[in-house]
Amino acid sequence: MTTPDPSQQSALTHRDFPASFVFGVATSSYQIEGAAHEDGRGDSIWDTFCREPGRILDGSSGDIACDHYHRLDEDLDLIASLGVRAYRFSVAWPRVQPDGRGAVSEAGLAFYERLVDGLHARGIEPHLTLYHWDLPQPLQDAGGWVNRETAQHFAEYAGVVARRLGNRVRSIATLNEPWCSSILSYQLGEHAPGLRDRKLALAAAHHLLLGHGLAMRRMRELELSAELGIVLNLTPMDAATPDPADVAAAQANDGTSNRWFLDPLLRGEYPQDTWDAYGPDVPQVQAGDLAIISQPNDFLGVNYYSRGLLSASGHVKPQTSSYTDMGWEVYPQGLRDLLRRLHADYTLPPLSITENGAAYPDVLEDGAVHDAERVAYLDGHLRALHSAMQAGVKVTGYFAWSLMDNFEWAWGYARRFGLVYVDFGTQQRTLKDSALWYREFLKG
Ligand code: FCB
Asked: Mutate which of 88, 132, 303, 353 to test ligand 1's pocket (most atoms within 8 Å of Cβ)?
């Protein structure tokens, strides 16, 4: 283990951060809600994907997940028991608009209203994400994000949710991680809808960004009190050696993973080197698209888990590093490097770390889970964040991923990211040591 042992360093507490800084925990709808076929919820692409043999490691689905839909009050108490100031959740589009357009389900909106009210009653700020990957299946049947019209439907849906909740939540993020819902889903085939076609993936990515811009425009018209923005997963790409071939590999990966999303949003243009490298697969960009995509955000959410280390022949995994259960290198310094680089290269709105966390093979024994590695991971990343802020990067919040173990997409229930352990047989929740540690950190 090369992760720092927090007991060997002076304790970091929330008091080392500005008083206005928001600490929270995060989840997403499909990963925790269950009740997949109740109260008029329509199918999403993840319902469909989970039914396809071989897509999910353990053959599972989010049909029940953490049964959060039925355990809302208990889970809100759980969140409050951690002492966090904020909770980031996502709205399931097919609960609100079962067909992805047109008819709105009152039961769906009422659930999220109850969630928001329950948070306020407990003194917790709601941070809402509109799209964490559960696209209504009827829209996928019409082409999904490859179809430009999906962007319009998304803006309509954003308006529906924002009209109901936009003055009662602290922030609204349009999209969570468009890299995942385009490249990972349409090119690498690992997420719904499970396609393997780069040209389609790049069309999807463009329409996701367009959908973000149209939704922003729609929500701005409503003059809401909520801050509006988007969440990206960003992975700093380091070169394994100073060899120009390794540096070029790192630069190319930075282009496809990071700049392909950052540049249109923050500069109103696609990065030229990556555009050239994509050749005939580049998306059709209509006049005015980039102006819509690059309108100002109130915040940029950054999800950080690990870095990439590249040589000319591909990804490198240093033997001296430690790795999480996902096989991701534990590299807190990457968070500091990433934040400083964003600060140097872009004109940024305030940043928020909207996800950060680690999967480990946790074991529940005598009512406890001793997840020392997760504690070290969180501590290391909070220190890296603190040091970036000391260096002048403006960051307003940090959300640990995740509140509780949940349906980890293609890995099913075989990967645990929670601060709270979930026994999926009984639905019993148990605070892991990391939850107790976070609570102490927040008490300071
Ligand atoms: C992020 C996702 C989140 C979760 C974590 C581990 O990419 O936004 O839903 O799966 O990874």
From this structure: 303
Query: In this predicted model, what pLDDT tens digit does every residue of 202-226 receive, in sequence order?
Result: 999 999 999 999 999 999 999 999 9
Do the domain assignments include residue 1? no
User: What residues are in contact with ligand 1 under a 6 Å CB criterion?
Assistant: 28, 31, 176-177, 180, 233, 303, 355, 401, 408-409, 417
The total domain count for the chain is 1
pLDDT at 5 over 60: no
Q: Which residues of 263-279 are buried (b: 16+ CB within 10 A; e: fewer)?
A: bbbbeeebbeebbeebe
Residue 325 Cα, ligand 1 centroid: separation in angstroms?
14
Sign of the torsion formed by the C-alpha atoms of 115, 30, 88 and 420:
positive
Q: Where residue 205 sits, what CATH number does that domain have?
A: 3.20.20.80
Classify residue 18: in a domain, yes or no: yes
Q: Which domain holds residue 18?
A: 6-443
DSSP 382-409: HHHHHHHHHTT--EEEEEEE-SB----G
- Residue ranges of alpha helices (H) inside 34-148 are 45-51, 72-82, 93-96, 106-121, 137-141
> Could you report the per-residue pLDDT of 259-304, keeping only the tens digit for each?
999 999 999 999 999 999 999 999 999 999 999 999 999 999 999 9
> Residue 22 belongs to what H/E stretch?
strand 22-26
| pTM for this model (two decimals) | 0.97
Confidence (pLDDT) at 1: 42
Q: Residue 86 falls within a domain, yes or no?
A: yes
Task: Annotate 5-20 with b (16+ C-beta within 10 A) or e (fewer).
Answer: ebeeeeebebebbeee
Per-residue pLDDT tens over the stretch 167-200: 999 999 999 999 999 999 999 999 999 999 999 9
- Residues belonging to the active site: 177, 355
Q: Which of 352, 431, 382, 347 has its CA nearest to residue 6?
A: 382
